[in-house]
User: What shape does this take?
Amino acid sequence: MMLRVEHLYKSYQAGKNRYEVLKDVSFEVQEGEFVAVMGPSGSGKTTLLNCISCFIPFEEGTVRLKDSNLAKLTEKQIAKVRNNKLGFVFQDFMLLDGLTVFENVCVPKSIRKEPFEKMEKKAENLLHMFGISEIADKYPAEISGGQKQRTAVARALMNDPLLILADEPTGNLDSRSSEAVIGAFLDAQKKLKATTFMVTHDSFSASYCDRVIVMRDGAIYTELVKKGNRREFMEELLTVLRDLNGGE
Amino acid sequence: MTLSTLWSRLRKKNKGDYWQFRFCMTFAVLLVSSLLMMVGSPLIQDSLPAGGDSGKQIYLICGVALSGCIIFAAYAARLFLRYKSREIGIFMALGAERNVLAKALSLELAKIIGVCAAVGVLLGAVIAFIVGKLMEMMTASVSDSEFAFTVSGVLASVLYAAVLFIMVEILAWRAMKRTNILEVINEQRRQEPMKKAVSKSYFISGIILTAVGFFGAVVLEQITVYAFGLWLGGWTNAFYLLILLGVYRMLVYAVSSRQKGRNPQKYYNNLINYGMIKFQGASVVKNMLVITLLIFAGLYAISYIPANMTTDTMLEDDFSYRYLNDADEPSKAELDSLADQNGISINDYREGEFIRVIGSGTDRDMSDDNKLIEIYYDEYAEYDCTSVSEFEKLTGTKLDISEGSYYQIEGRNAYENIWYKFGDMDKLYCQSEEQFLPMKYLGNTTYHSLVITPSVGMNTGSRFVLNDEDFSRLKSGLSEKKQETQVLFNTEGNLKCMAAFAGDFYELFVNGMSEDMNVMDYYNAMEGERKGSDYADLEEDATVDAKNPLKETDWQYAPVMEPLLKQQRTMLLANRLLLFGYVFLICFASVGIIGYTRSQGMGIANAQAFEDIKKLGADRHYRRELMKSQIKKVFVLPTIIGVVLLLIYEAMTLTMNDKNFSAADRKVLIILAGAGIIAALYQYVIYRASLKKVGNFLKLNS
Assistant: This one.
């Protein structure tokens, strides 16, 4: 087991009103698994991801990454976990504009001040793996959205994380670029045995996953496991989502 | 709810930004108006000779101070407009008309600056009054001039406030002119990347350009003049631009260079730092350049102070004067009585004989094509000559001078330059024998009180000691107006009484001068004869005010009065200390505010990047170190470059002045290096304050 979330509760206070965003959410993600979370806006997907990443605190429950309970860690320890054990891919890429593609990929190891020889070799391998070696010396402003996101995926894998957390990684991309980015996640899963937990709105992207957790009103509505081929799984997903939206 | 209500609510919410802007504007007006009111007051104006160098220096320095204040006010205004930009952009996005918003902003700025200007001018007047009264007390013993507000001083202050107002309104108008709403909203995060990646050779070229600039601006003309007698003209000042370009290149390299080089590990460890600074690079470099120049200007302003403090007159006697024997000057008895009236006594009174004799010399001038022209004339000038015996009587120095030779009377630190050489005179005209007597230069003899001050004892102001026989031959047949009496004496008593005595004596002396004594410093009768009507400029009467001995004169026979000179120096030093110290203060206030606001700008622009790397696992310590290193860029390098440039420039000018780097020059440099250290400490304090402010903004303070 790579990630275990148990009885997670999260609420927001707005004036006198309290809004429960996550209500008793529990699930597991196995090593090497590619899992997506879907659901309508306001269902709590992104809050769930932010709680797992420890970007925001939660009231109750535990988030265990392998053996460590993330809620119990200090700020410094959390930073270490984020750098060493988690890899992040965000909707808006979050690349540093002043660094080239190659340098952006090096950032996680640069934060760790790792020996440069290993860093360079690893970065080269990842760029090669995701087909972005040719743009290694280009700046983010000079490349396409798909290339930016593949750079972000490569960056996320730089420290061999236990888990990649992806927040709407294809949200800002066209279908061709989305396919390339999902391809990158699949490559990471296949070649590096990477475990990925992805929040998405896009059923096409989610159809490539091994499992999809569907959320509604802060709780898990259902879980779908891919059994057949991708097209069948996508049909299944669309059906569930239609039911979720009242058959529309 | 109207727009103005919303506007006022936002103002309450952003109190800090408003107060920062108000402080900067008030401070700029306060500094400049106090300076202008002081400079405009009779206290300073009375001590400045019309067209004199000290006056020019002070106005130049005022110009630097004014520019410094304008620069920092502009930075503060830009930062404020960046804060306001987001609000304005959101209003625009929601459909508010640009014109309405522009008017509201303009009105708000007008109100703020109106109040700041009024408070600034008022506080400036209070400060000017306090400082002026202090100066008045310091110079009360020798000067009746008082501090007073003048119309010109107050008007100039108001005018300056008006210039600030117009500048801020123009900046606001430019900010409102943009049409891209997203650009307006994201103004706070606007990036200004460096366009170029530079290599080490770019940096080296910067050093070379700076060195060439210094060489061209300070040394080159000295070489061409001394080696080839060729002046290069004012265009050599263009070399200063090379220094500017060189410094710019060094700063660009410091900001944008990030090659792996020999230490790739360091390169990768600082990767994020390089990346962040690069995208603010263009504006960072501009800021660094302005800070460097202001540090240079501030230190340059106070460089006059150590130079004045280290100047020692080395005069042997309190009073030294000479007069032609047809003048009606006070006798020893009259002087004693005058001294009695003022409560002081006269000691070591000595009189010696000099004669005015025509002699040879070399006229040196620059031709139309900037080349040195040397023309030897048999009858070059009328020189002051004395005999060995008279010289011994006056100075106690016994010289051995054979017939046909002479010594030149000089100061200890006298040096030759391209215009003036020792021993140019090689014959003197003997009127009684109607022939020239050949003369051989033996060397210099030192007696500062006998050196004619404006000419530093050179050229037409040269004074010679001759053999007694030669002196007698030359004196024979000379009329009274070609014979001179040199008087030296010391005084005893308190300084104020001495100054009063000097004032009374000066009035008597000026009123008693003969017609031939009423000449300007560099008047040369022989040159007048040679040039005829072209010489009219120097044939005017001497500039002298019998009632005010403290005023600078243009008079060849001006007496040298040490007690008054001390007072003049003290007064001058007090004036300059305050004025140049003020400019130093203004430049460094600008440096501080630019550094502080730039740091905040950096924090605002990189806030998202700091958030991103937090998500990538950079802990607080890492991010704080990153922030420190970003902010350091604005402070460390400009301070080092500014101080080093000033020390190099001063060392070069002090050396080139007399082709010698003396102990006094060393002292000046040490004092300036001390000022440089104080400047660095000041920068450190501003750096710490900036760290705190930006740390709060980025939530990185523990």
